[in-house]
Design a protein that fits this description.
Elements (H helix, E strand, L loop, with lengths): L2 E6 L1 H12 L7 E4 L18 E11 L4 E6 L18 E2 L5 E2 L3
Parallel strand pairs: 1-3, 2-4
Antiparallel strand pairs: 3-4, 5-6
């Protein structure tokens, strides 16, 4: 595996600069990337050739007190509601499941 550097999108660089200016520069960092490769490219399974990590976006998670770096073509899961949908699921008197969306 040969990491050949990191490329930052212009917007990601802007966000990093803003976070540092606001005092968030020392927070822990979580890298969000594909699970299929050490690179950010899911098709580059073996990482034999030198590759670069592509930083597309940077997100501050103030509640968790860390920064998420989004690389490649990654999608994040939406946050969960305070009350899970499972709380509304039940079985009625005729043994039918009710409350599923």
């Amino acid at each position: 595996m040969v990491l050949n550097g990191v490329e930052y999108e212009e917007e990601a660089n802007k966000i990093i600069k803003e976070l540092e200016e606001k005092g968030y520069g020392n927070l822990p960092v979580c890298i969000a990337k594909t699970q299929y490769s050490f690179s950010d490219d899911a098709k580059n399974l073996l990482c034999i050739e030198p590759f670069k990590i592509h930083v597309k976006n940077v997100i501050l998670k103030t509640g968790a007190n860390f920064i998420v770096i989004l690389t490649g073509n990654i999608f994040t899961m939406p946050g969960l509601p305070k009350i899970p949908a499972a709380e509304k699921i039940d079985i009625d008197e005729n043994e039918n499941i009710v409350g599923i969306f």
